């Protein structure tokens, strides 16, 4: 990922915005036909799914998960044990295949500590693997060989609707996912593949990912459903789309699609915390106080739970000064007020 124009920000755990505007413009021009497909799919699919969204009823019992990170230290084992959380998501960047054995050891230690823990591995893309199908095929097979003994679920790709993460069209994601699916089907039939990992309330990308003629299927649906970075999860976009209605619409899309089951994981959500730059993933304008962060976290999970339409929510993430439950700046761990609130919430 640290190859221009894609540069990783180690503070906020995400890529920097692509600064090479000429490259970005060229790539978008190259994929302009896919944007036309996206437009026409969404203007057909979204109105129908909005009309139907209140007719679909869910019956899911919400499960809680959290993100842990190889680079955040061994302290995470004790923190996970203290929280009592049973579902973990671990990012595995394809540009770090040289460290894959470290990722395996990191994941296995959680299971050795508690055999009830389940790992969801998030395989994160880069341009090299998007463009080189043989390299992708080789590395995916290696990942499945090493992780399949203890991990069944794999989120394929992340944040597919942001160019800084590597994909310039949904069609590029289809090719990427299809190659991973082929490896799974040929050698690891019991593994579950999860996608398409659209971030935010950009359901036109979700529509394109779920309504197409490409030979792919998602075993479960993943969404990075951030709601309102500037306020409470009860706040609405476009007048009516608060958290509940966003979930209703997402569930409606999955019910209508032949590409996926209606089992949905929200694999990333948080609020950015004030006065934590450069660790906050947004500007200070979007940041909230630690107390508001706690309240919004609790409110978000309660709304999701009440819909009965989401199988699991993964909070992003355990240790992260700008948006997590624990601040590790200056080499010291400080549990933020949301830490105890999260522990109480998932154990009630």
Explain what the structure shows:
- It is globular and about 50 Å long.
- The protein has eleven helices and twelve strands.
- 41% of the residues lie in helices and 15% in strands.
- It has an eight-stranded parallel beta barrel with strand order 3-4-5-6-7-8-9-10. Strands 1-2 form a two-stranded antiparallel sheet. A two-stranded antiparallel sheet has the order 11-12.
- Helix 3 links the parallel strand 3 and strand 4.
- It has 348 residues and is of the alpha/beta class.
- The protein has one domain: Alpha-Beta Barrel (TIM Barrel), CATH 3.20.20.
Summarize the structure.
This protein has 348 residues and is an alpha/beta fold. Helices cover 41% and strands 15% of the residues.
Structural class of the secondary elements?
alpha/beta
| Number of H/I helices | 11
The average pLDDT is: 96
* Unreliable stretches: none
* Dominant shape: globular
Biggest β-sheet: strands ordered side by side in the sheet: 3-4-5-6-7-8-9-10
Overall structural domain count: 1
CATH architecture, please? Alpha-Beta Barrel
What share of residues is helical?
40-55%
**CATH topology heading:** TIM Barrel
Radius of gyration: 19 Å
- What name goes with the CATH superfamily? Glycosidases
Find the count of extended strands (DSSP E, 2+ residues).
Answer: 12
Notable characteristics:
348 residues; alpha/beta; TIM Barrel; eight-stranded parallel β-barrel; two-stranded antiparallel ribbon; globular
């Amino acid at each position: 990922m640290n190859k221009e124009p894609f540069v990783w920000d180690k503070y906020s755990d995400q890529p920097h915005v692509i600064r090479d505007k000429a490259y970005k413009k060229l790539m978008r021009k190259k994929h302009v036909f896919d944007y036309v497909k996206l437009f026409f799919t969404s203007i057909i699919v979204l109105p129908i799914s909005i009309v139907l969204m209140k007719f679909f009823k869910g019956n899911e019992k919400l499960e809680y998960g959290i993100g842990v990170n190889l680079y955040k230290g061994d302290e995470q084992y004790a923190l996970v044990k203290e929280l009592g959380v049973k579902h973990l998501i671990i990012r595995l960047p394809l540009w770090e295949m040289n460290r894959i054995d470290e990722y395996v050891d990191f994941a296995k230690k959680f299971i050795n500590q508690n055999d009830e823990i389940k790992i969801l591995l998030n395989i994160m893309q880069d341009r090299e693997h998007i463009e080189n199908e043989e390299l992708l095929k080789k590395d995916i097979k290696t990942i499945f060989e090493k992780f399949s003994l203890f991990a069944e679920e794999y989120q394929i790709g992340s944040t597919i609707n942001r160019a800084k993460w590597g994909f310039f069209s949904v069609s590029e994601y289809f090719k990427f996912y299809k190659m991973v699916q082929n490896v799974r089907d040929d050698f690891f039939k019991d593994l579950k593949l999860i996608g398409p990992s659209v971030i935010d309330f950009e359901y036109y990308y979700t529509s394109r990912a779920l309504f197409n003629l490409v030979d792919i299927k998602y075993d479960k649906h993943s969404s990075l459903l951030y709601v309102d970075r500037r306020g409470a999860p009860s706040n609405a976009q476009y007048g009516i789309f608060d958290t509940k209605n966003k979930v209703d619409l997402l569930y409606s899309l999955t019910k209508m699609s032949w590409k996926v089951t209606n089992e949905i994981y929200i694999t990333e959500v948080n609020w950015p915390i004030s006065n934590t730059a450069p660790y906050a993933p947004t500007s200070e304008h979007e940041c909230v106080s630690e107390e508001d962060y706690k309240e919004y976290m609790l409110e978000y999970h309660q709304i999701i739970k009440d819909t009965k339409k989401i199988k699991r929510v993964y909070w992003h993430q355990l240790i992260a000064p700008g948006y997590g439950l624990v601040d590790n700046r200056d080499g010291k761990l400080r549990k933020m007020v949301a830490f105890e609130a999260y522990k109480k919430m998932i154990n009630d």
